């Protein structure tokens, strides 16, 4: 059941981030609450701790990236929701793979645009929807954790 919830959630988040560069609260907050609630109902106190620690891990790490302006607020809430549904280990592995994929995507974009790594004018930053990296990152974590 959690896999179905995850697939639907990530599909909607992907579409939203690609088309609007936003991941809405109406998507992330209910999934976070649902993840914590389902784990608590199914496993009691241990399930609650599992989900809440996942929320903390996802939110905490991404919040640091948000403060550095590397990701948006929707990405922070997205990983909090992933943590609520999938726990700390999966969330941190997904994040690790997502950051690696983001680096590869950024390098490809720079090569395609033929811009130097150190541009003379520092006015505009390279921006792309983080979901381009998150989706393969989560899929990779899922495959390796089987």
TrEMBL record:
One of its GO terms (biological process) is signal peptide processing. It comes from the Bacteria. Keywords: Membrane, Transmembrane, Transmembrane helix. Pfam families: Peptidase_A24. One of its GO terms (cellular component) is plasma membrane. The chain crosses the membrane at residues 26-42, 49-74, 94-113, 125-145. GO terms for molecular function: aspartic-type endopeptidase activity. Residues 5-108 form the Prepilin type IV endopeptidase peptidase domain. Belongs to the peptidase A24 family. This is Prepilin type IV endopeptidase peptidase domain-containing protein. It comes from Paenibacillus selenitireducens. The lineage of its organism: Bacteria, Bacillati, Bacillota, Bacilli, Bacillales.
């Amino acid at each position: 059941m959690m896999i179905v919830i995850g697939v639907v959630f990530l599909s909607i988040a992907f579409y939203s981030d690609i088309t609007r560069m936003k991941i809405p609260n109406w998507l992330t907050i209910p999934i976070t609450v649902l993840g914590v609630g389902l784990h608590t109902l199914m496993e009691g106190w241990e399930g609650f701790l599992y989900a809440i620690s996942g929320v903390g891990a996802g939110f905490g790490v991404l919040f640091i990236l948000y403060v550095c302006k590397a990701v948006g607020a929707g990405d922070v809430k997205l990983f909090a929701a992933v943590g609520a549904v999938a726990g700390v280990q999966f969330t941190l592995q997904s994040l690790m793979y997502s950051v690696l994929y983001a680096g590869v995507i950024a390098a490809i974009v720079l090569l395609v645009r033929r811009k130097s790594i150190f541009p003379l004018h520092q006015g505009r930053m390279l921006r792309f929807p983080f979901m381009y990296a998150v989706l393969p990152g989560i899929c990779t974590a899922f495959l390796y954790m089987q």
